[in-house]
What does this fold into?
Amino acid sequence: MAVTQQLARISAEYLATCRQSANASPDRNHLWDPPSADVLDLDWAPFLLERVCELGGLDDVHGHALRQALGGDSAIDLSFLNTYPHAIGSFGPAPTALSTAQVARAAELLGQVDFPALLAALPADEAEAASLIGNGADKIVGGPKAYLLEHFDAMREFYRCASQRQLLVVLWWDGQGRPHSWLHVSVWGIA
It folds into this structure.
């Protein structure tokens, strides 16, 4: 079973409804089930994306935006989503979220990142690039560059759409391999 990073675009009202459901349910069932069109599976890409940005010399402002887009923020209380037996983040850190203002800022800054230029700073040889990136990048079928570009572009578009719709983004690590995710490319090349 692969553990992958999940992102969901949701409204504040949906989150409040889930919180109310958890509080009203004897087994703390929050009824979390965001629409499949609003869920993004980033696979293992977060670690690799951060490493490429570090190697490519991404500035601190844009680097912070990337880390926040991949890690969320703990300011919004999501403890009700992490309660047994209905925990959504039982395979990693507790779920986190970004407010609509944080989503808008992340979308703006991610939109400014020239990710192909960051990839171009890596060695041209895919095996050398994978070795430099580390974190299992050498296991990506076809090499890491196309994989990472696809995932970065998907994340940037996900945040752009969330910002336009004024939605929150909830992040968690999932070991169930959600089949409804609209992007899933396995690090090992098995979808």
